[in-house]
# Entry
Amino acid sequence: MQVEINVNGKARKAEVEDRTLLVYFLRDTLQLTGTHVGCDTSSCGACTVHLDGGAVKSCTLLAAQADGCSVTTIEGLAIQDTPTTMQLHPLQEGFKECHGLQCGYCTPGMIMTAADLLKRNPTPSEEEIRFALEGNICRCTGYHNIVKSIQWAATHTTKPEPNQQEEPIDADKHLFTNDVTTGEVVETH
Amino acid sequence: MITYPFDYKRASSIAEAVSMLAGGGKALSGGHSLIPSMKLRLNMPDTLVDVGRIPELKGISMDGDELVIGGGSTHAEIADSQLVKEKLSLFAEGAAHIGDPAVRNRGTIGGSLAHADPSADWPALVLAANATIVVTGSNGERSIPATDFFTGLFSTALHEDELITQVRVPVSAGSKSTYQKFAQPASRYALVGCAIVKQADGQVSVAFSGVSDTPFRDTDVEGNLNSGQEPGPVGRGQSIMSDNFASEKYRVHLASVYLQRALEAVA
# Structure
Protein backbone atom coordinates (compact mmCIF):
# COMPACT_ATOMS: atom_id res chain seq x y z
CA MET A 1 0.00 0.00 0.00
CA GLN A 2 1.04 3.60 -0.37
CA VAL A 3 1.73 5.54 2.80
CA GLU A 4 2.41 9.21 3.27
CA ILE A 5 3.99 10.12 6.59
CA ASN A 6 5.32 13.49 7.66
CA VAL A 7 8.77 12.60 8.97
CA ASN A 8 10.79 15.34 10.69
CA GLY A 9 8.71 17.99 8.95
CA LYS A 10 8.89 16.53 5.45
CA ALA A 11 6.15 14.57 3.71
CA ARG A 12 7.53 11.17 2.79
CA LYS A 13 5.55 8.97 0.45
CA ALA A 14 6.38 5.38 -0.41
CA GLU A 15 4.91 2.11 -1.52
CA VAL A 16 5.36 -0.42 1.29
CA GLU A 17 4.23 -3.94 2.05
CA ASP A 18 1.22 -3.99 4.37
CA ARG A 19 3.30 -5.83 6.99
CA THR A 20 6.06 -3.17 7.06
CA LEU A 21 6.78 -1.95 10.57
CA LEU A 22 7.29 1.78 11.04
CA VAL A 23 10.89 1.27 12.20
CA TYR A 24 11.78 -0.47 8.93
CA PHE A 25 10.03 2.24 6.93
CA LEU A 26 12.25 4.77 8.72
CA ARG A 27 15.47 2.77 8.52
CA ASP A 28 15.23 0.95 5.21
CA THR A 29 12.95 3.09 3.06
CA LEU A 30 13.99 6.52 4.32
CA GLN A 31 17.54 5.56 5.40
CA LEU A 32 16.97 7.25 8.77
CA THR A 33 19.08 4.78 10.70
CA GLY A 34 19.25 6.77 13.94
CA THR A 35 16.21 4.85 15.13
CA HIS A 36 17.48 1.44 16.26
CA VAL A 37 15.96 -2.02 16.44
CA GLY A 38 16.88 -3.67 19.71
CA CYS A 39 14.62 -6.35 21.08
CA ASP A 40 11.85 -6.21 18.44
CA THR A 41 9.38 -7.04 21.24
CA SER A 42 8.54 -3.50 22.51
CA SER A 43 10.59 -4.07 25.67
CA CYS A 44 13.86 -2.21 25.11
CA GLY A 45 12.79 1.16 23.68
CA ALA A 46 15.71 1.58 21.24
CA CYS A 47 13.16 2.21 18.46
CA THR A 48 11.26 4.99 20.27
CA VAL A 49 10.06 7.84 18.03
CA HIS A 50 7.30 10.42 18.39
CA LEU A 51 4.01 9.80 16.60
CA ASP A 52 1.82 12.90 16.48
CA GLY A 53 3.84 14.23 19.41
CA GLY A 54 3.82 11.20 21.75
CA ALA A 55 6.54 8.59 22.31
CA VAL A 56 5.83 5.22 20.68
CA LYS A 57 7.84 2.11 19.95
CA SER A 58 8.18 2.00 16.19
CA CYS A 59 8.89 -1.76 16.16
CA THR A 60 5.33 -2.37 17.29
CA LEU A 61 3.53 -0.16 14.83
CA LEU A 62 2.81 -0.76 11.19
CA ALA A 63 3.87 1.97 8.78
CA ALA A 64 0.24 1.76 7.62
CA GLN A 65 -0.93 2.78 11.09
CA ALA A 66 1.20 5.92 10.85
CA ASP A 67 -0.14 6.81 7.40
CA GLY A 68 -1.18 10.47 7.41
CA CYS A 69 0.50 11.09 10.78
CA SER A 70 3.59 13.03 11.83
CA VAL A 71 6.70 11.24 13.04
CA THR A 72 9.76 12.77 14.69
CA THR A 73 12.95 10.73 14.92
CA ILE A 74 16.29 11.47 16.57
CA GLU A 75 17.38 13.03 13.26
CA GLY A 76 14.61 15.60 13.61
CA LEU A 77 15.51 16.93 17.06
CA ALA A 78 18.47 19.13 16.19
CA ILE A 79 17.74 22.52 14.70
CA GLN A 80 19.26 23.82 11.49
CA ASP A 81 20.12 27.26 12.85
CA THR A 82 22.03 28.45 9.79
CA PRO A 83 22.20 26.92 6.31
CA THR A 84 25.41 25.11 7.27
CA THR A 85 25.20 24.51 11.04
CA MET A 86 22.98 22.55 13.36
CA GLN A 87 22.05 23.42 16.93
CA LEU A 88 21.79 20.29 19.07
CA HIS A 89 18.64 19.73 21.12
CA PRO A 90 19.22 20.35 24.88
CA LEU A 91 18.87 16.60 25.47
CA GLN A 92 21.57 15.86 22.91
CA GLU A 93 23.78 18.47 24.59
CA GLY A 94 22.93 16.95 27.96
CA PHE A 95 23.95 13.44 26.92
CA LYS A 96 27.21 14.89 25.59
CA GLU A 97 27.90 16.97 28.71
CA CYS A 98 27.05 14.26 31.26
CA HIS A 99 28.51 11.24 29.46
CA GLY A 100 25.00 9.82 29.06
CA LEU A 101 26.07 7.13 26.64
CA GLN A 102 28.67 4.44 26.30
CA CYS A 103 27.94 2.28 23.25
CA GLY A 104 25.13 4.59 22.17
CA TYR A 105 22.74 1.91 20.98
CA CYS A 106 19.93 2.84 23.37
CA THR A 107 20.60 6.59 23.16
CA PRO A 108 18.18 7.64 20.40
CA GLY A 109 15.33 5.89 22.20
CA MET A 110 16.38 7.32 25.57
CA ILE A 111 16.42 10.84 24.12
CA MET A 112 13.06 10.49 22.35
CA THR A 113 11.45 9.13 25.53
CA ALA A 114 13.02 11.94 27.57
CA ALA A 115 11.86 14.54 25.03
CA ASP A 116 8.28 13.28 25.45
CA LEU A 117 8.67 13.45 29.24
CA LEU A 118 10.07 17.01 29.22
CA LYS A 119 7.26 18.14 26.93
CA ARG A 120 4.66 16.92 29.44
CA ASN A 121 6.68 17.65 32.58
CA PRO A 122 9.44 20.27 32.06
CA THR A 123 10.78 19.94 35.61
CA PRO A 124 10.68 16.22 36.46
CA SER A 125 12.09 14.83 39.69
CA GLU A 126 14.74 12.12 39.54
CA GLU A 127 12.06 9.56 40.41
CA GLU A 128 9.80 10.79 37.62
CA ILE A 129 12.69 10.55 35.15
CA ARG A 130 13.49 7.00 36.21
CA PHE A 131 9.80 6.03 36.04
CA ALA A 132 9.51 7.52 32.53
CA LEU A 133 12.52 5.44 31.41
CA GLU A 134 11.03 2.12 32.54
CA GLY A 135 10.54 1.08 28.92
CA ASN A 136 14.06 1.94 27.80
CA ILE A 137 16.84 -0.50 28.54
CA CYS A 138 20.57 0.35 28.65
CA ARG A 139 22.94 -2.60 28.79
CA CYS A 140 26.09 -0.55 29.46
CA THR A 141 24.69 0.05 32.97
CA GLY A 142 24.57 3.76 32.31
CA TYR A 143 21.30 4.83 33.91
CA HIS A 144 22.85 7.23 36.42
CA ASN A 145 24.40 9.38 33.73
CA ILE A 146 21.31 9.10 31.54
CA VAL A 147 19.23 10.52 34.38
CA LYS A 148 21.83 13.27 34.91
CA SER A 149 21.75 14.08 31.20
CA ILE A 150 17.98 14.53 31.30
CA GLN A 151 18.26 16.67 34.44
CA TRP A 152 20.89 18.75 32.62
CA ALA A 153 18.52 19.26 29.68
CA ALA A 154 15.66 20.19 32.01
CA THR A 155 17.72 22.92 33.63
CA HIS A 156 19.23 24.36 30.45
CA THR A 157 16.23 26.12 29.05
CA THR A 158 18.31 28.88 27.48
CA LYS A 159 18.97 26.59 24.55
CA PRO A 160 16.59 27.22 21.69
CA GLU A 161 13.52 25.05 21.62
CA PRO A 162 13.44 22.45 18.88
CA ASN A 163 11.34 23.04 15.83
CA GLN A 164 7.75 21.98 16.22
CA GLN A 165 8.26 19.06 13.89
CA GLU A 166 4.78 17.74 14.53
CA GLU A 167 3.18 20.70 12.77
CA PRO A 168 1.71 19.62 9.46
CA ILE A 169 3.43 21.18 6.47
CA ASP A 170 2.37 21.69 2.91
CA ALA A 171 3.04 18.27 1.42
CA ASP A 172 3.48 19.59 -2.11
CA LYS A 173 6.55 21.61 -1.21
CA HIS A 174 8.64 18.65 -0.07
CA LEU A 175 7.34 15.48 -1.58
CA PHE A 176 9.67 12.51 -1.26
CA THR A 177 9.32 8.99 -2.51
CA ASN A 178 11.57 6.01 -2.95
CA ASP A 179 12.73 5.52 -6.52
CA VAL A 180 11.26 2.28 -7.85
CA THR A 181 14.45 1.23 -9.62
CA THR A 182 17.19 2.25 -7.18
CA GLY A 183 15.22 2.30 -3.93
CA GLU A 184 16.79 5.67 -3.10
CA VAL A 185 14.74 8.45 -1.59
CA VAL A 186 14.23 11.22 -4.12
CA GLU A 187 12.38 14.49 -3.95
CA THR A 188 9.52 14.67 -6.41
CA HIS A 189 7.91 18.06 -6.90
CA MET B 1 9.67 -7.99 11.69
CA ILE B 2 6.53 -9.83 10.77
CA THR B 3 7.62 -12.86 8.80
CA TYR B 4 4.53 -13.49 6.72
CA PRO B 5 2.46 -11.23 4.47
CA PHE B 6 -1.07 -10.12 5.27
CA ASP B 7 -3.57 -7.53 4.09
CA TYR B 8 -4.19 -4.30 5.97
CA LYS B 9 -7.57 -2.58 5.86
CA ARG B 10 -8.66 0.52 7.75
CA ALA B 11 -12.21 0.95 9.04
CA SER B 12 -13.66 4.39 9.67
CA SER B 13 -16.75 3.34 11.63
CA ILE B 14 -17.88 0.49 13.87
CA ALA B 15 -20.33 -0.65 11.17
CA GLU B 16 -17.59 -0.75 8.54
CA ALA B 17 -15.24 -2.61 10.92
CA VAL B 18 -17.89 -5.24 11.67
CA SER B 19 -18.62 -5.76 8.00
CA MET B 20 -14.87 -6.08 7.25
CA LEU B 21 -14.41 -8.53 10.16
CA ALA B 22 -17.33 -10.61 8.89
CA GLY B 23 -15.21 -11.21 5.78
CA GLY B 24 -12.42 -12.69 7.94
CA GLY B 25 -9.44 -11.21 9.72
CA LYS B 26 -8.66 -9.71 13.05
CA ALA B 27 -9.22 -6.25 14.52
CA LEU B 28 -6.09 -4.15 15.06
CA SER B 29 -6.41 -1.41 17.65
CA GLY B 30 -3.15 -0.12 19.19
CA GLY B 31 -1.48 -3.35 18.10
CA HIS B 32 0.59 -3.71 21.26
CA SER B 33 -0.64 -7.21 21.97
CA LEU B 34 -1.42 -8.35 18.44
CA ILE B 35 1.72 -7.24 16.58
CA PRO B 36 4.14 -8.90 19.04
CA SER B 37 2.11 -12.11 18.84
CA MET B 38 2.17 -11.97 15.02
CA LYS B 39 5.96 -11.64 15.09
CA LEU B 40 6.03 -14.92 17.00
CA ARG B 41 3.35 -16.40 14.70
CA LEU B 42 1.20 -17.10 17.74
CA ASN B 43 -1.41 -15.20 15.75
CA MET B 44 -1.46 -15.39 11.96
CA PRO B 45 -4.46 -13.46 10.66
CA ASP B 46 -4.44 -13.04 6.89
CA THR B 47 -6.20 -9.69 7.19
CA LEU B 48 -5.91 -6.93 9.78
CA VAL B 49 -8.81 -4.50 10.16
CA ASP B 50 -7.42 -1.30 11.71
CA VAL B 51 -10.03 0.08 14.12
CA GLY B 52 -7.58 2.55 15.68
CA ARG B 53 -9.05 5.63 14.03
CA ILE B 54 -12.75 5.04 14.65
CA PRO B 55 -14.03 8.13 16.51
CA GLU B 56 -16.97 6.19 18.06
CA LEU B 57 -14.48 3.99 19.95
CA LYS B 58 -12.87 6.98 21.68
CA GLY B 59 -13.96 8.93 24.73
CA ILE B 60 -14.63 8.46 28.43
CA SER B 61 -17.88 9.69 30.01
CA MET B 62 -20.44 9.04 32.74
CA ASP B 63 -23.83 7.51 31.92
CA GLY B 64 -25.93 7.56 35.09
CA ASP B 65 -23.97 5.58 37.68
CA GLU B 66 -21.73 3.96 35.09
CA LEU B 67 -18.36 5.08 33.78
CA VAL B 68 -18.28 4.39 30.05
CA ILE B 69 -14.86 3.92 28.45
CA GLY B 70 -14.64 3.67 24.66
CA GLY B 71 -12.94 0.44 23.57
CA GLY B 72 -10.34 2.42 21.62
CA SER B 73 -9.20 4.45 24.63
CA THR B 74 -5.49 4.11 25.22
CA HIS B 75 -4.04 3.11 28.58
CA ALA B 76 -2.49 6.60 28.81
CA GLU B 77 -5.84 8.30 28.14
CA ILE B 78 -7.43 6.27 30.93
CA ALA B 79 -4.51 6.76 33.36
CA ASP B 80 -4.49 10.53 32.75
CA SER B 81 -8.27 11.07 32.67
CA GLN B 82 -9.49 13.37 35.44
CA LEU B 83 -12.93 11.73 35.23
CA VAL B 84 -11.47 8.25 35.75
CA LYS B 85 -9.30 9.48 38.64
CA GLU B 86 -12.37 10.94 40.33
CA LYS B 87 -14.92 8.21 39.63
CA LEU B 88 -12.90 5.00 39.33
CA SER B 89 -9.38 5.51 40.64
CA LEU B 90 -8.76 1.74 40.34
CA PHE B 91 -8.69 2.06 36.55
CA ALA B 92 -6.41 5.12 36.55
CA GLU B 93 -4.06 3.38 39.00
CA GLY B 94 -4.17 0.11 37.07
CA ALA B 95 -3.69 1.70 33.64
CA ALA B 96 -0.58 3.51 34.92
CA HIS B 97 0.95 0.08 35.72
CA ILE B 98 0.69 -1.20 32.15
CA GLY B 99 3.93 -1.60 30.20
CA ASP B 100 5.78 1.71 29.96
CA PRO B 101 4.89 5.23 28.74
CA ALA B 102 5.30 4.39 25.03
CA VAL B 103 3.21 1.22 25.34
CA ARG B 104 0.51 3.15 27.21
CA ASN B 105 0.42 5.74 24.42
CA ARG B 106 -0.63 3.09 21.87
CA GLY B 107 -2.24 0.11 23.61
CA THR B 108 -6.00 0.22 24.16
CA ILE B 109 -8.36 -1.27 26.72
CA GLY B 110 -10.46 -2.96 24.03
CA GLY B 111 -7.45 -4.47 22.32
CA SER B 112 -5.99 -5.75 25.57
CA LEU B 113 -9.29 -7.34 26.67
CA ALA B 114 -9.87 -8.98 23.28
CA HIS B 115 -6.35 -10.41 23.31
CA ALA B 116 -6.97 -11.77 26.83
CA ASP B 117 -3.37 -12.33 27.79
CA PRO B 118 -3.63 -14.01 31.21
CA SER B 119 -0.79 -11.78 32.47
CA ALA B 120 -2.27 -8.49 31.22
CA ASP B 121 -3.53 -6.00 33.79
CA TRP B 122 -7.00 -5.14 32.48
CA PRO B 123 -8.54 -8.59 33.16
CA ALA B 124 -8.10 -8.35 36.95
CA LEU B 125 -9.29 -4.74 36.91
CA VAL B 126 -12.51 -5.33 34.94
CA LEU B 127 -13.27 -8.48 36.96
CA ALA B 128 -12.86 -6.81 40.36
CA ALA B 129 -14.83 -3.74 39.22
CA ASN B 130 -17.76 -5.83 37.93
CA ALA B 131 -17.46 -4.22 34.51
CA THR B 132 -19.58 -5.06 31.50
CA ILE B 133 -17.98 -5.39 28.10
CA VAL B 134 -20.16 -4.11 25.26
CA VAL B 135 -19.50 -5.66 21.86
CA THR B 136 -20.92 -5.15 18.39
CA GLY B 137 -21.02 -7.79 15.66
CA SER B 138 -23.02 -8.82 12.60
CA ASN B 139 -25.89 -9.80 14.88
CA GLY B 140 -25.95 -6.47 16.64
CA GLU B 141 -24.85 -5.35 20.08
CA ARG B 142 -24.60 -7.40 23.26
CA SER B 143 -23.24 -6.88 26.76
CA ILE B 144 -21.00 -9.46 28.39
CA PRO B 145 -20.32 -9.35 32.15
CA ALA B 146 -16.56 -9.42 32.77
CA THR B 147 -17.03 -12.60 34.81
CA ASP B 148 -18.31 -14.38 31.66
CA PHE B 149 -15.83 -12.79 29.28
CA PHE B 150 -12.58 -14.71 29.89
CA THR B 151 -13.02 -18.33 28.86
CA GLY B 152 -9.45 -19.64 28.85
CA LEU B 153 -5.86 -18.95 27.81
CA PHE B 154 -6.06 -16.08 25.27
CA SER B 155 -9.74 -17.01 24.86
CA THR B 156 -12.85 -14.88 25.34
CA ALA B 157 -16.59 -14.96 24.76
CA LEU B 158 -16.08 -12.67 21.72
CA HIS B 159 -17.23 -13.98 18.35
CA GLU B 160 -14.91 -13.66 15.35
CA ASP B 161 -16.79 -10.70 13.88
CA GLU B 162 -17.35 -8.85 17.15
CA LEU B 163 -15.62 -5.69 18.24
CA ILE B 164 -15.36 -4.35 21.81
CA THR B 165 -16.98 -0.92 21.65
CA GLN B 166 -17.31 0.02 25.34
CA VAL B 167 -16.35 -1.00 28.83
CA ARG B 168 -19.05 0.06 31.30
CA VAL B 169 -18.20 0.11 34.98
CA PRO B 170 -20.58 0.72 37.89
CA VAL B 171 -19.35 3.52 40.14
CA SER B 172 -20.40 3.37 43.77
CA ALA B 173 -19.86 6.06 46.37
CA GLY B 174 -17.70 5.20 49.34
CA SER B 175 -15.91 2.24 47.79
CA LYS B 176 -12.16 1.73 48.08
CA SER B 177 -9.99 -0.08 45.59
CA THR B 178 -6.40 -0.94 44.71
CA TYR B 179 -4.30 -2.80 42.17
CA GLN B 180 -1.13 -4.41 43.48
CA LYS B 181 1.23 -5.81 40.88
CA PHE B 182 4.53 -7.64 40.71
CA ALA B 183 5.76 -6.88 37.21
CA GLN B 184 8.04 -9.07 35.14
CA PRO B 185 11.08 -6.75 34.96
CA ALA B 186 11.54 -6.70 31.17
CA SER B 187 8.06 -7.13 29.74
CA ARG B 188 6.21 -5.31 32.56
CA TYR B 189 3.46 -7.94 32.35
CA ALA B 190 2.05 -9.07 35.69
CA LEU B 191 3.67 -12.09 37.31
CA VAL B 192 0.91 -11.38 39.81
CA GLY B 193 -1.72 -8.65 39.66
CA CYS B 194 -4.32 -8.40 42.41
CA ALA B 195 -7.27 -6.01 42.09
CA ILE B 196 -9.65 -5.43 44.99
CA VAL B 197 -12.79 -3.33 45.22
CA LYS B 198 -14.20 -2.87 48.72
CA GLN B 199 -17.72 -1.49 48.86
CA ALA B 200 -18.90 0.96 51.53
CA ASP B 201 -20.56 -1.96 53.37
CA GLY B 202 -17.21 -3.80 53.55
CA GLN B 203 -17.97 -6.46 50.91
CA VAL B 204 -14.95 -7.11 48.69
CA SER B 205 -14.41 -8.44 45.20
CA VAL B 206 -10.97 -9.92 44.49
CA ALA B 207 -9.53 -10.71 41.07
CA PHE B 208 -6.16 -11.88 39.81
CA SER B 209 -4.15 -11.53 36.61
CA GLY B 210 -0.96 -13.44 35.91
CA VAL B 211 -1.69 -16.31 38.28
CA SER B 212 -3.95 -18.69 36.36
CA ASP B 213 -4.08 -19.30 32.61
CA THR B 214 -7.49 -17.61 32.80
CA PRO B 215 -7.91 -14.38 34.77
CA PHE B 216 -10.35 -15.03 37.61
CA ARG B 217 -12.39 -13.73 40.52
CA ASP B 218 -11.32 -15.66 43.57
CA THR B 219 -14.76 -16.52 44.94
CA ASP B 220 -13.35 -18.68 47.75
CA VAL B 221 -11.21 -15.81 49.04
CA GLU B 222 -14.14 -13.40 48.61
CA GLY B 223 -16.48 -15.73 50.52
CA ASN B 224 -14.01 -16.03 53.39
CA LEU B 225 -13.33 -12.31 53.60
CA ASN B 226 -16.99 -11.35 53.25
CA SER B 227 -17.91 -13.64 56.15
CA GLY B 228 -15.25 -12.09 58.37
CA GLN B 229 -12.66 -14.86 58.09
CA GLU B 230 -9.04 -14.97 56.92
CA PRO B 231 -8.75 -15.05 53.12
CA GLY B 232 -7.46 -18.64 52.95
CA PRO B 233 -5.48 -20.07 50.01
CA VAL B 234 -5.46 -18.16 46.71
CA GLY B 235 -6.36 -19.72 43.37
CA ARG B 236 -8.08 -22.88 44.60
CA GLY B 237 -9.50 -24.79 41.64
CA GLN B 238 -7.59 -22.64 39.15
CA SER B 239 -5.09 -23.80 36.55
CA ILE B 240 -2.02 -22.01 37.98
CA MET B 241 0.65 -21.03 35.46
CA SER B 242 4.25 -22.13 35.76
CA ASP B 243 7.09 -20.89 33.54
CA ASN B 244 10.75 -19.98 33.61
CA PHE B 245 9.97 -16.73 35.44
CA ALA B 246 7.83 -18.17 38.23
CA SER B 247 6.94 -21.69 39.28
CA GLU B 248 3.39 -22.63 40.29
CA LYS B 249 4.34 -22.68 43.98
CA TYR B 250 6.10 -19.31 43.79
CA ARG B 251 3.18 -17.72 41.90
CA VAL B 252 0.63 -18.86 44.47
CA HIS B 253 2.87 -17.59 47.26
CA LEU B 254 3.31 -14.22 45.49
CA ALA B 255 -0.45 -14.04 44.94
CA SER B 256 -1.14 -14.39 48.66
CA VAL B 257 1.51 -11.74 49.46
CA TYR B 258 -0.03 -9.32 46.96
CA LEU B 259 -3.52 -10.10 48.23
CA GLN B 260 -2.35 -9.09 51.73
CA ARG B 261 -0.86 -5.87 50.40
CA ALA B 262 -4.08 -5.12 48.56
CA LEU B 263 -6.18 -5.80 51.65
CA GLU B 264 -3.97 -3.47 53.68
CA ALA B 265 -4.34 -0.77 51.00
CA VAL B 266 -8.16 -0.86 51.20
CA ALA B 267 -8.33 -1.39 54.99
